[in-house]
Amino acid sequence: MMRRDRKAQGLVPVPEWVGDAWTIAAPLGLLYLVTAVASGVSSSARVDLGYMLVNLVIVVGLSIFVSNSGVLSFGHLAFVAIGAWTMSLLTIPVNMKDSIMPELLPVLRDASLPPLVAVLVAAVVGGVVALLAGAALMRLHGLEAGIATFALLMLVVQVLTYSTALGPRSGQSMVGIPQSLDLQSMLVIALLMVVVAWFYSRSRSARLLRASRDDITAAPASGIHVTKHRIIAFAISGAVAAVGGALWAQTNRVVQASQFNLDFTFTTIAMLVIGGMFSLWGAVVGVIVVSVLNHVLGLLESGLQLGGVIVSLPSGSRLIIVGLVLIVVLILRPGGLTGGREARWPLRPKLALGLSRNS
Amino acid sequence: MTDSSTPQGSPSSQPGPSGTLSAEGVTRHFAGVKALSDVHLEVPAGRITGLIGPNGAGKSTLVNILSGYDRPDEGRVLLGGVDRTRERSYRRTRRGVARTFQHGHIFKEQTILENVQLGALGVGRSSRAARREAIEILDRFDLLEHAGESAAHLPHGVERRLGVARALATRPTHLLLDEPAAGLNDGEMELFKSAIRSVVDDLDVGVLLIDHNMRLIFGACDHIHVLAAGANVVDGPPETVRADPRLAESYLGSMAATIAGGDDA
Questions:
Q1: Given this model, what pLDDT does residue B254 score?
Q2: Does any CB of chain B come closer than 8 Å to the CB of residue A195?
């Protein structure tokens, strides 16, 4: 992860820990800053900001698996759906559940938890499902595993669509989810998830997994059990994505299985790829860039008055433009905007070695 | 989550004498072609065992089977007398069988130091210990000055040494080196030879050395096996093998096969 930049050798060296701390301080700081600015712009910006924080948690969750394993997952919305479902079932008032989901399992019908506890339960459910799914899927090789995750999404969506024991009848939505977390709490949760991803990325398991990402053949010769570390990453990743789903449910307030579709999948993957698939910094930057772009395009779609002229885009152009940006980024910067690296201390690239201190 | 990798027993705690890695009657087919047939080989601890043979002899296939990267169709792999034929590669590494690769397979996004550290981390060492050991090993292979450099674009000589250093970081009882000296110049070759010799002498490691450089093989090995067309041809101490007419025959014989389209499996 550390590339030395010879051009920068003339700059003042900093201790290794400064470079390390910067890899977490930069994403946290940027996220805080964007939230602070956006929440003061307009009420429509605040709405989009809510969705940005939701997407941030989802994409950070996705990146925990993708950036460390190097395996792309097309199915992480399965865990988002599970998180959204868990949140909805645990927070919709019981009398409302009775009317929209008459055949719900009694235990789910009676369950009712405070919103933050519900988010935590969503994380656990998402994590456990990801652990079980991972144990089955992670034996597959890279691309096959990625495609199998997509099958997992289809499966989860089908179950949530048709199982009346778990939700409303097919085609109907869950409504009545109270919006109990304000932007500030959402920001705190989002920052917390970034911290979780950062700590994970520094763990032994993640380091070994990244070695397998670099060279899958060489990893076992270093004693690395690739499948095991992929499963661990997948489980943590699924838990964080489920937290994103829980936040999504209480932000969107209408939840239906069909919402976890290709558009949503594409948006989250585009965010990660545009920012840089192989780093946490890439995930954070990608979500912010695409969200800001989305917001501006949304304004344009509904007609923006610029000096007496109304500029407007045909509705539906958002996804097209995000798609184009994705393609352009892939052509010009295949590693994404961040090049797939972690944030680097601006005054000097991270010192890779502190031999004199530690040996 | 940090310490989820459980070390599978420290290899260095296994006593030396029991530590022989051996292939017994190993046979392997690929799509009907016999890559190895009934091959026997022993890699005792504390010795350098050479494995030579023309391209297509099955040397790399044998390394893959000894290291758990492949399984034989028939025959067994024993480590310290215990059958490990079906044990998977990462477990075999933790058990003490380390290997290098003909074609680099370096962790490119990491520094040279991190590459070696990963070898130690992978078999369950703590971060701190892994770093300390990595620095020692880099020193042994004259790589310490490069420690902080990216492993993405290494000069050939550095890459070869790094491969061996990383394998050594797993603290092996047995080290399988697949053409570790290919492309090294004479000076580098001498350094490499003495580094390997010091590893064997200091750490009582059993080394299997595959190379096409006969000066290295005959200069460094205690015992040499000759393999041709997937079968044992001759084995013995260097002077015996050197004098054996079957050595030259096996290479001559293979030239005809190479012209007919042989390929190193």
A1: 65
A2: no
CA distances (Å), origin A96, targets A89, A119, A246, A318: 10, 20, 19, 35
Element (H, E) at B98: strand B97-99
Three-state SS string over B205-237 comes to CEEEEECCCHHHHHHHCCEEEEEECCEEEEEEC
B175 has which bridge partners?
B98, B207
Q: How far apart are CA A67 and CA A283, in angstroms?
A: 9
Greatest Cα-to-Cα distance within chain B, rounded to the nearest angstrom = 58
The first and second tokens of residue B264, run together, are: 């190193």
Residue B106 distance to chain A (closest CA, Å): 7
Chain B touched by A4 (CB under 8 Å): yes
pLDDT in tens, B152-206: 888 888 898 899 999 999 999 999 999 998 888 888 888 889 989 998 999 999 9
- Chain B interface includes A8 (CB < 8 A): no
* B121–A contact, CB cutoff 8 A: yes
Task: Give me the residue label for tokens 């007419």.
Answer: B245
ipTM (interface predicted TM): 0.85
- Domains, chain A, in order of start with CATH, read 20-354 (1.10.3470)
DSSP-assigned letter for residue A20: H
Q: Which of B98, B118, B169 sits opposite A211 (nearest CB)?
A: B118
Q: Given this model, what pLDDT does residue B31 score?
A: 86
Q: Is the predicted pLDDT of residue B9 greater than 70, yes or no?
A: no
pLDDT grade for A153, boundaries at 50, 70 and 90 = very high
Instruction: Give the tokens for residue A205.
Output: 């398991």
- B206: alpha, beta or left? (left if phi > 0; alpha if psi -120 to 50): beta
Cα–Cα distance, A183 to A40 (Å, whole number): 12
What percentage of residues in chain A have a pLDDT greater than 90? Answer: 73
The separation between the first and the last C-alpha atoms of chain A, rounded to the nearest angstrom, is 22
